[in-house]
Structures are given as C-alpha cells and as structure tokens.
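Hi C.,

You asked whether I'd gotten around to modeling the 123-residue construct. I have! Everything is below, sequence then structure, no commentary in between.
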Amino acid sequence: MALSKALIEKCKRSLLETKAEILNRVRDVRHDLHLSEDGKQGDEGDQTVRALAESEALSNNERLRSRLVEIEMALSRIENGTYGICEETEEVIEPDRLLAIPWTRLSIEGAEIRESMMKRYAH
C-alpha cells in the first residue's frame, strides 16, 4: 500500500509551515540573546538569571536545529520518493502518524523495535 499524493502534499505543507515557524523562533532567540548581551549590568543575581536564561535559550535552540534537520530530511525523502517508508520495517508508515509527526522516519512498530534495541544495548 502506497501513500496517496494528497497525503504526501498535506505532510509537505505541514513540514514547510513547521520549518518556517522554527526559523522564526531561532531568529527571535538570536535577537533576544543579542539584546541581553547589551545589558550585562546588574548584580550577581541578575547576571545569574541572565546566564540561566541564555543557557536555556541555547538548549532550546539546539532542539529546534535538530528538528530542522529532521524536517529537511523528510522533505528530501518526499523529493526522492522514499517518504513514508519506515527505516526499521521498510513498511509504509501509518498515515495518522505522518499527519501527527510528518518528519517521522519510523512506523509505530519500527519505533517500538528501535526502542527495544536501544534498551537492550544500553545495559
């Protein structure tokens, strides 16, 4: 069973919208960090709060970058015709899962297999 063109188009639109949102958030974080660089005054408490906020922003930025990579990979799978195929089982990923997580590379079964493998080798 292959995915319909309509489903793939819907997922592609969702991926592009999410990509734009992430790029805007990254830009906003950079802008906010730049503004906080300008105001380095304050007592030790202010500086600690600012440092924690910067650390949290950078950590969040890293998660956004990771998601952006996943989105780019999904868009390239759409282009090369491999979108919606599970990396573990090589079966078609459930349409509802793709609509919920359009950048996913694993079906539910594939995700369970990968998780059990990770648990097995984590010990």
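If it helps when you're writing up: The chain has a mean pLDDT of 89.

Thanks,
B.
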